[in-house]
Design brief:
The complex is a heterodimer of chains A (469) and B (1047). Chain A is mainly β. Chain B has four domains: 230 residues, Spore Coat Polysaccharide Biosynthesis Protein SpsA, Chain A; 309 residues, no CATH class; 133 residues, no CATH class; 91 residues. In chain B, strand 1, helix 1 and strand 2 form a beta-alpha-beta unit. In chain B, helix 11 crosses helix 36 and helix 17 runs parallel beside helix 28. The chains are: A mainly beta (469), B alpha+beta (1047). The interface between A and B is large, with 63 and 77 residues. Chain A: Pfam families: DUF5719. Chain A: InterPro entries: DUF5719. Chain B: GO terms for molecular function: glycosyltransferase activity. Chain B: InterPro entries: Nucleotide-diphossugar_trans.
Chain lengths: 469, 1047
């Protein structure tokens, strides 16, 4: 009896053990295989389109002439073209550094208010001025720019005979504290007094670049502001010996990116200059700067707007932290869209020189960022104006340009191709169908050579994804 | 004139198991009386025809039938109504019920006693239990000074020891012989009484009317106690509750009837408060079933004023003697106390099972805890001086204890822009934690981190006492519990839930498996369960399965096991309502409370090894040592395999039932962990976070270590070496994790107790209603926006309602719109919105670095965009970079705070009240009392192991015999004490004799010898129990005498 019970108990235990161990090992195996499906919720998110803001553009004001005592004075007023979706409001910025005061005009803010609804108002403006002084000649056309907290000026020179004037205008309601960083062909420049520059709200300050970075052939200036945003502009003039070599007013180029597009770079009709191996700023060149310390591999390709065979793409290794210029010597005259791609973000622009009347003039072609689908386009007053459109997208673009009188011009820009129609001086257009394209306006005439890129509205107003948790 | 006796027999049908059979016995006994009653009247209440037929056949003179179930008093009144009025004092009524069978000479002896003394109006017999025929059920009744009924003799074996009693205050109703004239004079039994105290009240009134009441021990009536005459003696819970209600009701009723007119109203006012107080007393004394009885009795009496007035009038009419005449018959307080003590001791002496000592200190448990504490101090050296900690899911707590408790229950939740809803049950756990360090609630988390290891050791050791009596195996189990991979992973990751669950689980095991034994354990376990579930809701399904198993095997203590889930249910009720019933999102209830923090996802094999977040410590160590040949993913399984093998081996050893339960627990834990790691329920920014599988792995580990310990215990001494090896291998697995804690691999660090910059904290301390928006750039280029209140996030003010909600609420849209415009240059005038939401600050967090990857470029771009936009916004002043990010201050004036959340005070108060009631009830139930401790000591500490010689189940008679023996022993002891006192006094005069001889002399009593002989004769029947009783007697004997000599 007792034996039977013991046998029953033992066999019960063995059964428990075998079943238990089997179940346990089986469960371990199943868990180990990790075959369960994942049940994951989606994080709630919403795309917020920022409420349409007032759009404003600041026009840099008249060209300045630097006196011997490092004072600045203007001598004539620029002409303005405005294109806007509604009538713009004009505000004047105080320019205490200009000895002539507001006699020839001051930097001017043009703004349009957002109406009802989500649609953001559009505005574009451009100014141009022809200088005819003994030491300052040429055409300087430029767009009116949008204030920004961080911008790169890739232009200028403080070499002998080169004068560069930095103008900082603060159109916002908050004072701006500016930090300037200067880079040159030898690397970063430790510029005294370049940090903590106060630009009060609604004021314009002007500085000679040479006071920060003297004797620099290829400066690149980064303008960072905290507080209010500013519009930085760089006026460069050249005097070769006693011959004036032109003037140009440049706005910041497109922000650092691993691809930069310089649409419509016009190489002067004088033909390629001989490569003497000596630095000469009259030779067309690309100025490239890679922030940081790592070298970047550059691939530079060209698209001819005339439909001619473009030059072979170039490959360069560009050192980081040092400004480099690549001469455009072997290229036939004409206009090209230059596409530079790299493995690191960089900034770039191009400088070319052309014969203008009895002397010569130069122009800075900035990189332009991809445009929105519909923009306003202001062609500054000036002879020989052309609109350069480059379409890097994979689809042909059908561009419709409507001027103020309602005259419609149709234009096709093939995928990967460019177009360069002439446009009348001082005309304002509403341009649609240019989404993703890059644009530049250039002027080439006896009055001089000049250009300005068309930049999209600040990305600070694009829709943003918000996770409310 | 010869006496004339009318017997009145009250018959109910189906009142007990005796039923008609009991009736037949009574009828037979009535027929067998040596002195036959002259008339027999039967009162048949609601009786079927069979019963009436039986009565008719038994020569009953008159049968009165009633369709209702009258109580004894009413039935008697109905029977007596048919009799003629008494013509003289020699006419008697003999009150009998269907289950009271008198011995043949009972009536003769009662009559004999009453005839010789004309002052005696009522004579009662000795009532014995009909089941065994030898236990005294009643031999006279009395009251305490407070009016509670006292049975002079109760549940004692009748050995004639009380046969000298005669004059008493009252007698039991069954078998009572009463003069008919007195009956009429007093108006019979008060029908307001149920089955309790009706006779006592009648006897009291008889005494006050100048009559005597005696008990006649030689007249014997056997009663089955089915509740017709006198209270039912059934042990069913319902019968117990009814008895308690009637006894208490009768006591209160008598109090109101007997009290002087001037103070009746005072007594009346005290009824309900006293009822509630006594209800609380019932809870404390672990009789929660009787709480209702107490309160019901109080209400019942309080709302029967008409009966009381009538009864008072009746009393006044017949009263001739003063109350002082009864004082000699009352039981004095000292006697009440003595009886209570006697009964208690008698109970203990018999039932005590030798419960081994805990051996916490001698067995090394204390030293292990101390060692664990020292290791903890070394591992968390950097936290020793900290006043707050941060990292992982740790956050500061609200600064005040009051603030902590405001965040529980249901109501206005000041999270984000605020909403009305249920709080996480975890908030209550946090509130309790914070209250422990009331001077600085956040310090509680420092203590949790510092004391985690020693507390885990302590818990593990105590849990092991439920499985083994061997100190060595308890130590091994404690070590295994302390170095559990899920626990160390939780400490590394700073996962508060994981840590707390690991500290709670051993105690839940310790109390939970004893829940069926005692209300105290059940109450503690129920609160621990509530805390565990609140901390890790994902454990709910596994624990629910275990609870259902326990419920299925709980037997007659089902109420205690059932209670286990009641506090949890109460705690979760608001959330269950909101998330489950209203929102139909049941799975969200499983989400981890607190801050969602992303951790590495474990692989399935890592889960099997108990690693909830991968094994970074081992990986980095094998990298550092260049052990690429022996990768961690092979080494750790090898080191942990012996433990698993031992746990499975336990299934083959004796006692495999316990091991099986523990292995099932482990499997449930593993399954939960696997499911948890695949459930991504909580949202933080753009990321979704899975449930922390570590909590479930702690349960898995509990099962494994428990089963292994059962295995050690079954193998006895031969498992010493394997146990040691298993312990050491587990320690080896833990060493890299511990080292990682020291070398900064842990997420937890000392903090200043702030989650927002000091600038914000300063402003918020002046105005706590200010809000801050925290913007965090997300890897995909989006931005996450959160609004925090006052000084910032607190652990007690988190909500799974928010973190698991995947839809966009109105508040979300508001916040998103605001945030989207803040990081853009837009035309929206933010000032009005900011002022409206009382947003005073915007904090731009640096982009989070996702596990193993640097901040991605889109996130950096968003950070730049947000900074640029905020910088340009004239409404904001740039405060500057802080330790928590870059801060901007809104320059506008915030709108004064509106009174929010005042619209749901009723619901929130009700919820808090219910929680308070249930947890108050549970706390009272959990308080240990002397009685509950004694009851616990009567059971072995180990759960579930079948003892080699189980105690035999005893019948009531056997228990009564043992009680009687114990009582007799007590009597001897008291006598001994008294005698030795006397001897001491004598010794003061004479020369001191030998102490031993004193003892021998003292043993020479008449009664003691009887009971000694009895105990010896019983020892043949149940050797175990009586042997213990004997040994107990001798030991306490000598202790007593020593004590008396010491005086």
């Amino acid at each position: 009896m007792a034996d039977k019970r013991r046998i029953a108990a033992t066999s019960g235990r063995v059964l428990t053990g075998v079943v238990g161990a089997a179940v346990f090992l089986g469960a371990g195996l199943v868990v180990g295989q990790d075959a369960l499906p994942v049940l994951a919720v989606n994080a709630p998110k919403t795309t917020v389109t920022p409420t349409a803001s007032d759009q404003s553009r600041l026009c840099a004001g008249p060209l300045l002439r630097q006196g011997g005592d490092a004072s600045f004075a203007s001598f004539a007023a620029p002409e303005l073209t405005t294109a806007a979706s509604s009538a713009p409001e004009q505000t004047v910025i105080a320019a205490p550094d200009n000895l002539t005061g507001d006699q020839f005009g001051t930097p001017t803010v043009l703004s349009v208010s957002g109406g009802e609804g989500e649609e953001r108002p559009r505005i574009a403006a451009a100014q141009s001025q022809v200088a005819g002084l003994d030491d300052l000649t040429g055409l300087a056309a430029t767009a009116c720019g949008e204030a920004s907290a961080d911008s790169w000026l890739v232009a200028g020179s403080t070499d002998v005979g080169r004068t560069s004037v930095l103008s900082l205008s603060n159109p916002s309601r908050a004072d701006a504290v500016i930090d300037l960083s200067f880079f040159s062909e030898t690397g970063a420049i430790d510029a005294p007094g370049a940090r903590g520059i106060l630009v009060p709200a609604g004021q314009n300050r002007v500085f000679a670049v040479a006071s920060f970075a003297p004797g620099v052939r290829t400066p690149v200036i980064r303008v960072q502001s905290s507080g209010g945003h500013v519009v930085a502009a760089l006026q460069q003039s050249v005097t070769r010996g006693i011959t004036p070599g032109g003037v140009e007013l440049s706005l910041p180029t497109a922000p650092p990116s691993s691809t930069q597009v310089l649409p419509g770079v016009v190489l002067g009709g004088a033909g390629p200059a001989p490569d003497t191996g000596i630095y000469d700023d009259s030779i067309g060149a690309l100025r490239i700067f890679v922030p940081g310390t790592d070298p970047a591999q550059m691939n530079i390709s060209f698209v001819s707007e005339q439909g001619t065979e473009p030059p072979q793409p170039l490959n360069y290794s560009i050192e980081g932290g040092v400004v480099q210029e690549i001469s455009l010597t072997d290229m036939t005259a004409g206009s090209y869209s230059v596409v530079i791609s790299s493995d690191l973000p960089f900034v770039a622009s191009a400088r070319t020189t052309a014969v203008a009347g009895e002397s010569s003039d130069f122009a800075w072609f900035g990189a332009s960022a991809p445009l929105e689908d519909t923009i306003e386009l202001a062609v500054a007053p000036g002879e020989g104006a052309r609109l350069h459109l480059f379409n890097p997208t994979g689809a042909d673009l059908d561009v419709t340009m409507t001027d103020q009188a309602g005259v419609v011009t149709q234009l096709a820009v093939p995928a990967g191709g460019a177009a360069a129609p002439t446009v009348p001086s001082g005309r304002a257009y509403n341009v649609s169908g240019v989404g993703g394209a890059h644009a530049q306006v250039s002027f080439e005439s006896a009055a001089g050579l000049s250009a300005y890129p068309i930049q999209p509205t600040s990305p600070l107003a694009t829709p943003v994804t918000v996770y409310p948790r | 004139m010869s006496p004339r006796v009318t017997a009145i027999l009250v018959v109910h049908d189906g009142t007990g198991p005796a039923g008609p059979a009991g009736l037949q016995g009574t009828l037979d006994a009535l027929a067998a009386q040596s002195r036959q009653p002259d008339v027999v009247v039967a009162v048949a209440c609601d009786a079927p025809a069979a019963t009436t037929l039986a009565l008719e056949q038994a020569n009953i003179d008159r049968i009165v039938t009633s369709g209702e179930r009258l109580n004894f008093g009413q039935a008697l009144a109905a029977g007596i109504r048919v009799l003629e009025q008494p013509s003289g004092p020699d006419e008697f009524l003999w009150l009998l019920a269907q289950d009271t069978a008198p011995e043949p000479d009972a009536l003769a002896r009662l009559l004999g006693a009453i005839e010789v003394a004309p002052s005696v109006a009522i004579a009662g017999p000795k009532l014995r239990d009909a089941a065994d025929g030898s236990t005294i059920v009643s031999l006279g009744e009395s009251v305490t000074p407070f009016g509670a009924t006292v049975l002079l003799v109760e549940n004692e074996l009748d050995q004639g020891q009380h046969d000298s009693v005669s004059d008493v205050l009252g007698v039991a109703p069954a078998g009572m012989l009463v003069r008919h004239t007195v009956w009429e004079q007093l108006g019979g039994f008060d029908p307001a009484f149920g089955s309790a105290d009706d006779a006592l009240d009648f006897c009291t009134r008889a005494r006050l009317a100048g009559h005597r009441v005696t008990v006649v021990p030689s007249a014997i009536v056997l009663t089955q106690g089915s509740g017709i005459a006198g209270p039912s003696r059934s042990n069913r819970p319902a019968a117990k509750r009814k008895r308690a209600r009637q006894a208490r009701g009768a006591q209160l009723y008598r109090r109101l009837v007997y009290a002087p007119a001037a103070v009746v109203w005072l007594h009346w006012l005290s009824l309900v408060p006293l009822g509630i107080l006594r209800g609380i007393g019932r809870i404390v004394s672990k009789q929660p079933g009787l709480v209702g009885s107490e309160i019901a009795a109080a209400f019942r009496v309080a709302f029967s004023p008409i009966r009381i007035v009538r009864a008072r009038k009746n009393l006044r009419r017949s009263k001739v003697a003063g109350w002082s005449s009864l004082s000699a018959l009352r039981i004095p307080t000292t006697e009440v106390r003595r009886r209570r003590r006697l009964r208690r001791e008698a109970g203990v002496a018999v039932y005590t099972v030798e419960r081994s000592d805990l051996r916490f200190f001698t067995g090394g448990g204390a030293w292990l805890v101390l060692a664990s504490g020292l290791v903890s101090a070394a591992l968390f050296f950097s936290l020793l001086a900290a006043s707050a900690v941060e990292g992982g899911t740790l956050l500061p707590l609200s600064a005040s204890v009051g603030g902590l408790w405001q965040h529980i229950g249901y109501g206005w939740r000041d999270i984000g822009l605020g909403f009305t809803g249920a709080a996480d049950p975890f908030s209550a756990v946090v509130a309790v934690l914070g209250t422990m360090t009331f001077w600085n609630p956040s310090y509680a988390l420092v203590l949790v981190m510092l004391l985690a290891l020693p507390l885990a050791t302590l818990g593990g050791w105590f849990a092991a006492t439920r499985l083994t009596e061997r100190s060595g195996y308890r130590l091994i189990a404690a070590v295994l519990w302390t170095v559990a991979p899920p626990f160390l992973s939780a400490l590394l990751a700073g996962n508060l839930s994981g840590i707390l669950v690991h500290l709670l689980l051993p105690w839940l095991f310790y109390t939970g498996c004893a829940a069926a034994r005692s209300w105290g354990s059940a109450a503690v376990a129920s609160m621990l369960l509530a805390a565990t579930l609140a901390t890790a809701p994902a454990l709910a399904p596994a624990l629910l399965v275990l609870w259902l198993l326990a419920l299925a095997f709980s037997g007659r203590h089902v109420a205690r096991v059932f209670w286990l889930v009641v506090p949890s249910a109460a705690l979760f009720a608001p959330l269950l309502w909101q998330q489950g019933i209203v929102a139909q999102n049941w799975v969200r209830l499983l989400a981890d409370p607190g801050v969602p923090v992303q951790t590495a996802s474990p692989t399935g094999w890592e889960l099997v090894l108990g690693l909830p977040a991968g094994n970074p410590a081992w990986d980095s160590m094998s990298d550092a040592l260049g052990l690429s040949g022996v990768p961690a993913y092979l080494l750790v399984p090898v080191l942990l395999a012996p433990l698993i093998v031992m746990a499975l081996l336990a299934l083959f050893l004796p006692g495999s039932g316990r091991a099986a339960v523990l292995v099932v627990t482990a499997l449930l834990g593993l399954a939960t962990a696997a499911a948890a790691s695949h459930l991504f329920l909580t949202v933080t920014g753009s990321a979704v976070v899975s449930i922390w599988p570590g909590s479930a792995l702690s349960l898995y580990w509990l099962g494994l270590v428990g089963a292994a310990t059962v295995g050690f215990d079954s193998l006895r001494r031969s498992a010493a070496l394997p146990a040691l090896v298993i312990g050491i291998l587990a320690l080896v697995v833990a060493v890299p994790m511990g080292a990682s804690l020291v070398t900064g691999g842990g997420q937890v660090a000392a903090s200043n107790g702030r989650t927002l910059p000091a600038y914000v904290a300063a402003a918020a301390s002046a105005d706590p209603s200010l809000r801050t928006m925290i913007l965090t750039p997300e890897p995909d280029g989006g931005v996450s926006a959160r609004v925090v209140n006052g000084v910032g996030d607190t652990l007690d003010n988190q909500s799974t309602v928010v973190t698991t909600d995947t839809s966009l609420t109105d508040n979300d849209t508001k916040v998103a719109t605001l945030a989207g415009n803040l990081v853009s240059q837009g035309g929206l005038d933010l000032s009005a919105l900011l002022a409206d939401y009382r947003l005073q600050f915007v904090l731009l967090d640096s982009p989070p670095s996702t596990v193993g990857e640097p901040a991605s470029s889109p996130a950096q771009e968003m950070a730049n965009r947000a900074a640029a936009s905020l910088n340009a916004n004239a409404a904001f002043a740039h405060v500057g970079p802080t330790d928590r990010g870059t801060l901007w201050r809104f320059e506008g004036e915030p709108v004064p705070p509106a009174a929010v959340g005042g619209d749901v005070p009723l619901v929130s108060t009700l919820v808090l009240l219910t929680l308070g009631l249930i947890f108050g009830f549970t706390l009272l139930l959990a308080i240990p009392t002397a009685a509950s401790r004694r009851a616990a000591e009567a059971r072995p500490r180990i759960i579930g192991r079948r003892s080699p010689d189980p105690a035999p189940r005893l019948s009531r008679a056997e228990r009564a015999e043992r009680d009687a023996a114990a009582e007799a022993e007590k009597a001897i002891e008291l006598e001994l004490a008294a005698e030795s006192n006397e001897i001491d006094e004598r010794e003061a005069h004479a020369a001191a004799p030998e102490p031993g001889s004193t003892e021998t002399e003292a043993g020479d009593g008449v009664e003691p010898r009887q009971s000694d002989a009895f105990a010896l004769s019983r020892s043949a029947g149940s050797p175990a129990a009586d042997g213990q009783a004997t040994s107990h007697r001798t030991s306490s004997h000598s202790a007593d005498s020593q004590e008396s000599h010491g005086r």
